[in-house]
Amino acid sequence: MDISFSAKNIAHSATLAMNELIASIRESGEKVYHMGFGESPFPVHHLIRKALCDNSWRHSYLATQGILPLREQVSMFYKKMFNLDYPPEQIVIGPGSKPLMFAALTALDGSIFLPAPSWVSYQHMGHFLSREVHHIITRSKNSYRLEPDALVGAIQENAPDSKQQKVLVMNYPCNPTGHSYDGHQLVEIADIARENNVIVLSDEIYALTHFRDQEHHSIAEFYPEGTLITGGLSKDRSLGGYRLGTLLIPPDETPLLRAILAVGSEIWSCVSAPIQYAGIEAYRIDTGLVEYIRDCATVHEVVTRYVYQRIRTMDVTCPYPQGAFYLFPDWNDRRMALKKIGITTSKELANYLLENYHVASLPGSEFGMPPEDLCLRLATVDYDGELALDTYLEDMSSALEHPETFVSAVAPSVLGACDQLDLFAAHISSEE
Ligand code: PMP
Ligand code: GLU
What we know:
Elements: H1 5-8, H2 14-27, E1 33-34, H3 46-54, H4 68-82, E2 91-94, H5 97-107, E3 111-116, H6 120-128, E4 133-137, H7 148-158, E5 166-171, H8 183-195, E6 198-203, E7 227-232, E8 245-248, H9 254-267, H10 273-282, H11 289-313, E9 326-327, H12 335-340, H13 346-357, E10 359-360, E11 362-363, E12 376-379, H14 385-394, H15 396-401, H16 403-410, H17 412-431
Parallel strand pairs: 1-10, 3-4, 3-5, 5-6, 6-7
Antiparallel strand pairs: 2-8, 7-8, 9-12, 11-12
Helix pairs in contact: 3-10, 4-10, 5-6, 5-9, 11-17, 16-17
The structure holds 4'-deoxy-4'-aminopyridoxal-5'-phosphate and glutamic acid.
Glutamic acid is lined by residues 13, 15-16, 37-38, 98, 175, 379.
């Protein structure tokens, strides 16, 4: 059969493809240190499990926008956790934030601007929609943060007419870098967006995985009229497979809301009924769930910062992680030695690590970086979440004060991956 023009150049999403590849390698009995997929490993909170069981009898289609009690709960959650005011009418529930983002990009006119690096799927969504996609260059030494001058430069170069709407996708804490923005940095971007007719699609799915020394701010605090926020249960509540996401849209945007709901109604109809009712429980703020979210985030912090410290001892540049469960080291300073073993692109680097050191990662090129930029994304979640959380809760100060002991007890594969990367670093040094 002939493949359509829009599907011809689309490949399986790099993150999911890597996860499926590693599952099949593991099934064959081979050892792999899996740093190639970002899935939070903690057990489902018992109240959410119970709510899902109690609601399993529900079998009817529901309104595309999502049930009102869930949207009311999400509204209260955003008020309590982020001090943001979004009434239920401005909230859409979807089967994960990914399809909601796609619906929002379908509904919003304008070319799409993405910082490079950014998460794998945005650029492909743009291509599916036959939209212009512009990557904005960022700098490793600034943790790949979107800088105001770079944003202005990209707008002037690609879409200078201020009457022409544009869409900027931002994600913080960031997949793949773990970096986030403070309020002041967001104000600067908000001002530029407002002046240049840029709508911000703010992917805040990792908002509540930020680490203890950083408070999450949303750009919507400074640019409420031009920001759409996506979020959901996949990361901070470890419920990626539940498929429940949220989209918050600005007030007085009825045509936009209508267009997004029209897309949803034609593609997914509604989120599964039992999941929506379990979702009410997952957005409660008075049952210990907020504490569960915070504890899971702290385990991510301990493990991710441990891997960061190990990477820094290898003399590799890496942004300091402030949230989520990713690191984005770059090996550009070791380019000459890497060339000697046949590595000149991030894809070759990732393949080499998998073949020779059994460490799975994703090349920076999947995140919009130039192919020859020698950066990789490492996910730090290859461990038993239940064991890690229980061990942390038993003795929090010991986990925080002795991360190496904690990681070696609860995340041996993560420790093993660091040891493998050490061997690789030593190999490169011997080539220098
Ligand atoms: N944004 C980012 C940055 C992600 O890493 C993910 C993870 N898949 C998503 C969005 C999508 O999450 P979901 O569709 O599960 O809500
Ligand atoms: N967000 C995860 C990652 O980047 C995987 C899930 C997905 O891509 O949909 O690894």
